[in-house]
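[recover] target loaded
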């Protein structure tokens, strides 16, 4: 059985265990209220649970009921029925829960139920959420390339949220996968002593129906709700279910890279100022600058975006360079972070994190962009995978805060991040360019580099540091792309000149 076949059902059992813990706590409270009040008991009224952001579970839908079923019974059928019962009494989960438990034998299901029952009922909700995320990550890793379509490693998402700081407002992810961006945003709010459900309004789009259901389940496990549009041929290039233009305080995303065959004829009515693609459509058959414009256009006047993008987008030539120039000249590009290899399950190649801030145009940093080379910052998990520690994330995020002139926030990273900041930026840390780490480049410097947003062009190499094979290959690929582009332009000029000469001779 493939991971994609068993991952949904296992996550469903973890979800059910979590839902029962919350249900049982509220049921006990309602029973106590019913015993002391004259009015009728509300202990079996679904709306009483919904009012407290808790799912109502009928008797046959409860985890403990399923756990006590004899092994000889049809446990798969019973779990499927339980999921249907939950959807019936909790409409927000309609069509979301897995119902393929008949793929498992009763013996295996009994073992799974026993194993999940070992998760202590005393755990707080965030701990349940972390268990759910752990399994999401493990399943994504086992699926390799396919896994990355629904899961972005948490350390990457954590840095995105730390930099855009989604304290309060509307948040959009138009390629939301299993909802990791929303969960980390909620965790950021909770760590700053606020209630995420009250502070954040969540909207998402997910092309794959199964993944969209995973997202809604992930939100529910974390006590969150959102407007998630998924399945039914919905596609963020062509569809705008949230009327996003200018509406969002925050955008977070890890879109698919280098998508081709987008039908641009369907997009022509969405081009121009105040529309989804304000800077125009790329002439190349590549969707990267469609995504980038969707993120930009969805932001309100003070909005911030953080997203993952293929390295090639930072240096792309021709029409993509023209689009990038317009974006830079709009004073919206705030920070660019180069990320090293092996940070993702999908690809071993390095990527770039882009941060947009529409509000920066009215600040002292309007005419600069901060470039950070974080390719040498990582923790090795195993031979093929890396991540960032909390201290490393805290260090990078606070480097950005120093650049912005904001107060340090050591909620994440604590003393370890503080020590590193003092080591590099002084006992009373003040931003300064550091060779091999960071550079605040002016628009004039960026123009001189062909409007490139490749951090290595500005940051340089730290003293005594050698260029790695991976970096050399990346630089060679960039130069080769430039050569291919120049050769194509030369051929076009050659044809134009030949045609002009021919016309003159014919005259």
């Amino acid at each position: 059985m493939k991971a994609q076949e068993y991952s949904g059902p296992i996550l469903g059992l973890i979800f059910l265990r979590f839902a029962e813990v919350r249900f049982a706590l509220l049921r006990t409270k309602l029973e106590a209220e019913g015993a002391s009040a004259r009015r009728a008991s509300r202990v079996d009224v679904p709306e009483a649970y919904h009012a407290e952001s808790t799912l109502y579970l009928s008797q046959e839908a409860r985890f403990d009921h399923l756990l006590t079923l004899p092994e000889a019974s049809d446990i798969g059928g019973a779990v499927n029925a339980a999921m249907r019962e939950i959807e019936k009494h909790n409409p927000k989960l309609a069509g979301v829960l897995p119902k393929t438990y008949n793929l498992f034998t009763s013996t295996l299901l009994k073992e799974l139920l026993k194993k999940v029952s070992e998760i202590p009922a005393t755990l707080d909700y965030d701990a349940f959420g972390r268990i759910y995320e752990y399994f999401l990550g493990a399943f994504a890793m086992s699926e390799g390339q396919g896994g990355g379509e629904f899961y972005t490693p948490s350390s990457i998402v954590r840095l995105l949220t730390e930099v855009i700081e989604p304290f309060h407002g509307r948040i959009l992810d138009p390629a939301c996968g299993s909802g990791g961006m929303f969960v980390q945003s909620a965790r950021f709010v909770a760590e700053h002593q606020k209630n995420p459900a009250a502070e954040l309004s969540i909207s998402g789009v997910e092309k794959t129906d199964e993944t969209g259901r995973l997202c809604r389940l992930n939100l529910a496990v974390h006590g969150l709700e959102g407007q998630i549009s998924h399945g039914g041929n919905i596609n963020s290039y062509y569809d705008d279910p949230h009327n996003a233009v200018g509406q969002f305080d925050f955008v977070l995303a890890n879109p698919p890279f280098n998508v081709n065959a987008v039908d641009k004829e369907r997009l022509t009515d969405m081009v121009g100022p105040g529309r989804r693609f304000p800077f125009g459509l790329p002439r190349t058959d590549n969707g990267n600058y469609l995504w980038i414009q969707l993120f930009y256009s969805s932001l309100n006047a003070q909005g911030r975006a953080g997203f993952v993008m293929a390295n090639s987008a930072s240096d792309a030539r021709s029409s993509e360079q023209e689009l990038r120039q317009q974006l830079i000249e709009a004073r919206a590009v705030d920070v660019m972070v180069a990320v090293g290899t092996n940070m993702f399950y999908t690809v071993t190649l390095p990527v770039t994190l882009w941060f947009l801030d529409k509000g920066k145009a009215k600040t002292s940093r309007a005419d600069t962009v901060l470039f950070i080379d974080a390719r040498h910052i990582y923790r090795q998990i195993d031979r093929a995978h890396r991540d960032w520690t909390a201290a490393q994330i805290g260090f990078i995020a606070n480097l950005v805060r120093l650049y912005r002139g904001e107060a340090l926030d050591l909620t994440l990273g604590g003393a370890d991040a503080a020590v590193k900041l003092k080591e590099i930026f002084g006992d009373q840390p003040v931003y300064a360019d550091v060779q091999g780490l960071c550079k605040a480049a002016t628009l004039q410097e960026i123009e001189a580099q062909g409007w490139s947003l490749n951090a290595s062009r500005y940051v340089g190499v730290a003293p005594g540091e050698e260029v790695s094979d991976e970096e050399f290959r990346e630089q060679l690929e960039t130069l080769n792309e430039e050569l291919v582009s120049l050769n194509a332009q030369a051929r076009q000029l050659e044809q134009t000149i030949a045609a002009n000469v021919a016309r003159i001779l014919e005259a």
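[recover] notes: Residues 26 and 49 are 7 Å apart (CA to CA).
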